Amino acid sequence: MEARRFQAARLFAKGESQGAVARALGVTPVTAHHWYHAWHANGRAGLKAAGRAGRKPRLGPKQLATIEQALRAGPRVYGFSTDLWTLPRVAAVIERLTRVRHHPGHVWRILRGLNWSLQRPARRARERDEAAIAQWKTRRWTQLKKTPAASARGSSSKTKAASRSSPSSAGHGRPAGTRQS
Protein backbone atom coordinates (compact mmCIF):
# COMPACT_ATOMS: atom_id res chain seq x y z
CA MET A 1 0.00 0.00 0.00
CA GLU A 2 2.81 2.39 0.85
CA ALA A 3 4.41 1.74 -2.55
CA ARG A 4 1.15 2.71 -4.28
CA ARG A 5 0.97 5.93 -2.27
CA PHE A 6 4.57 6.77 -3.26
CA GLN A 7 3.68 6.08 -6.88
CA ALA A 8 0.76 8.49 -6.49
CA ALA A 9 3.19 11.11 -5.12
CA ARG A 10 5.36 10.71 -8.23
CA LEU A 11 2.31 11.14 -10.46
CA PHE A 12 1.17 14.22 -8.49
CA ALA A 13 4.66 15.69 -8.83
CA LYS A 14 4.42 15.23 -12.64
CA GLY A 15 1.20 17.25 -12.60
CA GLU A 16 -1.32 14.43 -12.99
CA SER A 17 -4.86 15.11 -11.73
CA GLN A 18 -6.42 13.26 -8.81
CA GLY A 19 -8.82 11.48 -11.17
CA ALA A 20 -5.99 10.32 -13.43
CA VAL A 21 -4.04 9.02 -10.43
CA ALA A 22 -7.14 7.19 -9.15
CA ARG A 23 -7.64 5.49 -12.53
CA ALA A 24 -3.94 4.66 -12.95
CA LEU A 25 -3.65 3.06 -9.52
CA GLY A 26 -7.11 1.49 -9.36
CA VAL A 27 -8.33 3.37 -6.29
CA THR A 28 -11.40 5.49 -5.64
CA PRO A 29 -11.30 9.23 -6.34
CA VAL A 30 -11.81 9.86 -2.61
CA THR A 31 -8.64 7.88 -1.81
CA ALA A 32 -6.67 9.81 -4.43
CA HIS A 33 -8.04 13.05 -2.95
CA HIS A 34 -6.81 12.09 0.55
CA TRP A 35 -3.42 11.08 -0.83
CA TYR A 36 -3.10 14.35 -2.74
CA HIS A 37 -3.80 16.47 0.34
CA ALA A 38 -1.42 14.40 2.51
CA TRP A 39 1.28 14.71 -0.17
CA HIS A 40 0.62 18.45 -0.65
CA ALA A 41 0.80 19.16 3.11
CA ASN A 42 3.75 16.93 4.13
CA GLY A 43 5.35 15.70 0.94
CA ARG A 44 6.35 12.07 0.61
CA ALA A 45 6.54 11.74 4.41
CA GLY A 46 2.77 12.34 4.57
CA LEU A 47 2.19 9.14 2.60
CA LYS A 48 4.36 6.86 4.75
CA ALA A 49 2.74 3.93 6.53
CA ALA A 50 1.43 4.61 10.01
CA GLY A 51 3.46 1.80 11.56
CA ARG A 52 2.49 -0.75 14.10
CA ALA A 53 -1.02 -0.45 15.51
CA GLY A 54 -1.57 -0.79 19.22
CA ARG A 55 0.73 -0.72 22.19
CA LYS A 56 4.31 -1.85 21.72
CA PRO A 57 5.17 -5.15 23.39
CA ARG A 58 6.82 -4.88 26.78
CA LEU A 59 9.08 -7.85 26.13
CA GLY A 60 11.74 -7.78 23.46
CA PRO A 61 13.07 -10.71 21.42
CA LYS A 62 16.00 -11.29 23.81
CA GLN A 63 13.68 -11.36 26.81
CA LEU A 64 11.32 -13.78 25.05
CA ALA A 65 14.25 -16.07 24.27
CA THR A 66 15.25 -15.98 27.96
CA ILE A 67 11.69 -16.84 28.97
CA GLU A 68 11.53 -19.76 26.55
CA GLN A 69 14.84 -21.09 27.85
CA ALA A 70 13.47 -20.87 31.40
CA LEU A 71 10.30 -22.71 30.41
CA ARG A 72 12.35 -25.49 28.84
CA ALA A 73 14.37 -25.82 32.06
CA GLY A 74 11.18 -26.70 33.94
CA PRO A 75 9.31 -25.39 36.98
CA ARG A 76 11.44 -27.24 39.56
CA VAL A 77 14.49 -25.15 38.59
CA TYR A 78 12.55 -22.08 39.75
CA GLY A 79 11.51 -23.59 43.08
CA PHE A 80 8.09 -25.02 42.25
CA SER A 81 7.13 -28.35 43.79
CA THR A 82 5.82 -30.07 40.62
CA ASP A 83 6.78 -30.30 36.96
CA LEU A 84 3.59 -28.52 35.90
CA TRP A 85 3.67 -25.05 34.34
CA THR A 86 0.62 -23.00 35.24
CA LEU A 87 -0.13 -19.47 34.08
CA PRO A 88 0.55 -17.94 37.53
CA ARG A 89 3.88 -19.79 37.70
CA VAL A 90 4.87 -18.61 34.23
CA ALA A 91 3.88 -15.05 35.17
CA ALA A 92 6.06 -15.26 38.29
CA VAL A 93 9.05 -16.52 36.28
CA ILE A 94 8.56 -13.78 33.67
CA GLU A 95 8.53 -11.15 36.38
CA ARG A 96 11.57 -12.66 38.08
CA LEU A 97 13.61 -12.77 34.85
CA THR A 98 12.51 -9.56 33.12
CA ARG A 99 11.05 -7.39 35.90
CA VAL A 100 7.94 -7.05 33.71
CA ARG A 101 4.68 -7.98 35.40
CA HIS A 102 1.98 -9.73 33.39
CA HIS A 103 -1.42 -10.80 34.64
CA PRO A 104 -1.60 -14.62 34.70
CA GLY A 105 -4.70 -14.50 32.52
CA HIS A 106 -2.72 -12.82 29.74
CA VAL A 107 0.42 -14.96 29.92
CA TRP A 108 -1.12 -17.40 27.44
CA ARG A 109 -0.61 -14.78 24.69
CA ILE A 110 3.13 -14.81 25.35
CA LEU A 111 3.15 -18.61 25.40
CA ARG A 112 1.22 -18.75 22.14
CA GLY A 113 3.72 -16.32 20.62
CA LEU A 114 6.47 -18.76 21.64
CA ASN A 115 4.52 -21.62 19.97
CA TRP A 116 3.70 -23.28 23.27
CA SER A 117 0.32 -24.98 23.53
CA LEU A 118 -1.98 -25.99 26.34
CA GLN A 119 -1.09 -29.41 27.71
CA ARG A 120 -3.07 -31.02 30.49
CA PRO A 121 -1.64 -33.95 32.41
CA ALA A 122 -3.66 -37.17 32.55
CA ARG A 123 -5.60 -37.35 35.78
CA ARG A 124 -4.91 -40.53 37.68
CA ALA A 125 -5.79 -41.55 41.18
CA ARG A 126 -2.95 -41.59 43.68
CA GLU A 127 -4.14 -45.00 44.82
CA ARG A 128 -3.79 -46.42 41.28
CA ASP A 129 -2.12 -49.84 41.36
CA GLU A 130 -0.67 -50.64 37.94
CA ALA A 131 0.17 -54.25 38.89
CA ALA A 132 -3.42 -54.94 40.00
CA ILE A 133 -4.75 -53.38 36.80
CA ALA A 134 -2.48 -55.53 34.64
CA GLN A 135 -3.53 -58.66 36.56
CA TRP A 136 -7.22 -57.81 36.16
CA LYS A 137 -6.79 -57.29 32.42
CA THR A 138 -5.10 -60.67 31.92
CA ARG A 139 -7.29 -62.79 34.23
CA ARG A 140 -10.70 -61.30 34.93
CA TRP A 141 -11.20 -59.43 31.66
CA THR A 142 -10.68 -62.59 29.61
CA GLN A 143 -13.45 -64.26 31.66
CA LEU A 144 -15.84 -61.35 31.14
CA LYS A 145 -15.33 -61.01 27.40
CA LYS A 146 -18.16 -62.38 25.27
CA THR A 147 -17.56 -65.64 23.49
CA PRO A 148 -17.35 -65.69 19.70
CA ALA A 149 -20.72 -67.54 19.47
CA ALA A 150 -22.50 -64.85 21.49
CA SER A 151 -21.10 -62.12 19.33
CA ALA A 152 -22.10 -63.81 16.04
CA ARG A 153 -24.28 -61.79 13.74
CA GLY A 154 -28.01 -62.37 14.05
CA SER A 155 -30.59 -62.51 11.32
CA SER A 156 -32.37 -59.38 10.21
CA SER A 157 -35.21 -61.28 8.54
CA LYS A 158 -38.68 -60.36 9.82
CA THR A 159 -40.03 -63.77 8.86
CA LYS A 160 -37.69 -65.77 11.07
CA ALA A 161 -38.95 -66.40 14.57
CA ALA A 162 -35.53 -65.98 16.17
CA SER A 163 -34.89 -62.71 14.39
CA ARG A 164 -33.78 -59.80 16.53
CA SER A 165 -36.15 -57.51 14.68
CA SER A 166 -39.22 -59.75 14.66
CA PRO A 167 -42.10 -58.70 16.95
CA SER A 168 -42.18 -62.08 18.70
CA SER A 169 -38.53 -61.93 19.69
CA ALA A 170 -38.62 -58.28 20.72
CA GLY A 171 -41.60 -58.68 23.02
CA HIS A 172 -43.19 -55.42 21.88
CA GLY A 173 -45.82 -54.67 19.29
CA ARG A 174 -48.48 -57.00 17.88
CA PRO A 175 -48.43 -60.59 19.07
CA ALA A 176 -47.27 -63.04 16.42
CA GLY A 177 -50.05 -64.48 14.24
CA THR A 178 -52.53 -61.60 14.69
CA ARG A 179 -53.83 -59.65 11.72
CA GLN A 180 -53.81 -55.95 11.41
CA SER A 181 -57.33 -54.58 10.97
Q: In a nutshell, what does this entry contain?
A:
This protein has 181 residues and is an all-alpha fold. It has 9 helices and no strands.
Q: Return the structural class.
A: mainly alpha
The proportion of residues forming helix, as a percent range, comes to 40-55%
Radius of gyration: 37 Å
Assembly state of the chains shown: single chain
Give the strand content: under 5%
End-to-end C-alpha gap:
80 Å
Apparent shape: flat
Our count of helices gives 9
Largest sheet: none
Roughly what is the average pLDDT, rounded to an integer?
Answer: 83
> What's the total count of β strands?
0
Order of secondary-structure elements: HHHHHHHHH
- Which stretches are poorly predicted, pLDDT < 50 over at least 5 residues? none
Describe the structure.
With 181 residues, the chain is mainly alpha-helical. 46% of the residues lie in helices and 0% in strands. It is flat. The termini are far apart.
Features:
181 residues; 46% helix
In terms of topology, how is this protein built?
Layout lengths: L1 H12 L4 H8 L3 H14 L18 H13 L13 H12 L8 H7 L16 H9 L1 H5 L22 H4 L11
